[in-house]
Amino acid sequence: MSRGLPSRLRLTRCRYFEAVSRALLFLGLTAVLGGFAPHGVLAAQAESPGMEMLRKMQEAARTLDYAGVYTYQQGGVVLSTRIVHVVDGTGERERVLVLDGRPREYIRHNETTQCLLPERKLVLVERRDSDRFPAVLFDEGDNLPAHYDMQVSDTTERVAGRPCHELRLAPRDSQRYGYRFCADKETGLALRAQTIGPEGVLIQIVFNTLEVGSDVSAEALSPGWNTKDWKVVELPVHKVDLASEGWRIPLPPGYRQLTQMARQMKADRHVKQLVASDGLSTISVFIEAYSETASHPHAVGLVREGAMNVYRKRIGDHWLTVLGEVPADTVRDLAHRTEYVPLAVP
Question: Which of 74, 110, 163, 238 has the most crowded CB, counting CB atoms within 10 A?
Answer without folding.
Answer: 74
